[in-house]
């Protein structure tokens, strides 16, 4: 894409489908030429103009609003033309085809408008990433987090730490290069204290970022357990419709069923799996069990369903299902003690062996309200103070930057100024990579922006 960054690009920016309004964006040096060809003039900048959109023969394709943005005062930082017509997919395609028939105008690649905004310093990389996070948001929490990131909340935290690292590094390099100069405020203890302060800020930011990452991620809950425990009944109960076949015959569920539900506008992925009958000789059932195992390994949370009527109430899952003892120690588990209508037990939530046990009946609905309350409080909205959107890329770089500061702390005990300065430089570079400063690896940018929609 480097060789094409000076091209003029065009794309449909709204969703392909019938709607009230459809928008086409054109960005680049030839945007004014496109305006002259399609509109017959270059509109006054930053004003909405009701115009006819014509082809090269002067035939009107559509009518709508045209807005002209003169660089650098546009989203991309380039000359930009926005055509807001009717949301007819066919009309939009005809108009776009007319635009790209003009020499040296091409279709934009996915995320190319946002990439140009980044390259022209209109957004830093975390702000650019927050655009696609906003589009993909599945809850009000995620929308707020994405908006905060777009406004620079996360970037500002990073820039504050980068500034402190850079300031200390420059002072250290002054001591190294000009030892005859008296920099009295930089005693060995002062250097050590500053590094400690930077490390604490990085740890706090990493902790906050990790919490935000968990809060904004789409939660995957896997329903697991032995055959005929009521897993599919629980699946249907959570969905509030019968998506899974429910039968008294053991092993009815053979494949993985996956549906998304919304709880207080938070998207949750619910996965129903085959019963874990490890003694089965049925080849199809074995395939279902293998698929269930794969889902369990990638779960954010497991609902392990136990049949209260036929199973001894042993809540030590590692013992009754030793095949998953390692996974069960890593993934949070809630035990669903089902069929209390047959045992005459009361609906309740208790804690046994550091795990929550919810006693309920999917048949009568007793205890389901408790389950929903538990879902909201302990799984979905455990951290409600979500300030910004965080990606795995950010966490990895924060961790690496923190490790470099730890090295600097160790070296400061022996006053190894050259090594400390190098550790600080590496940490500074890693943090700058998060916001996209000094980033030179085009494949990284391509990977990031390729996840965007065309037209964004």
TrEMBL record:
Keywords assigned: Cytoplasm, GTP-binding, Hydrolase, Magnesium, Metal-binding, Nucleotide-binding, Potassium, tRNA processing
Cofactor: how bound: Binds 1 potassium ion per subunit.
Source lineage: Bacteria, Pseudomonadati, Pseudomonadota, Gammaproteobacteria, Enterobacterales
Gene assigned in the entry: mnmE
GO biological process, one term: tRNA wobble uridine modification
Entry GO MF terms: GTP binding; GTPase activity; metal ion binding
EC number: 3.6.-.-
Signal sequence range: none
Residues binding Mg(2+), per UniProt: 232, 253
Pfam families membership: MMR_HSR1, MnmE_helical, TrmE_N
The protein, known as: tRNA modification GTPase MnmE
Binding, K(+): 228, 247, 249, 252
Role this protein plays: Exhibits a very high intrinsic GTPase hydrolysis rate. Involved in the addition of a carboxymethylaminomethyl (cmnm) group at the wobble position (U34) of certain tRNAs, forming tRNA-cmnm(5)s(2)U34.
Principal localisation: cytoplasm
Subcellular location: Cytoplasm
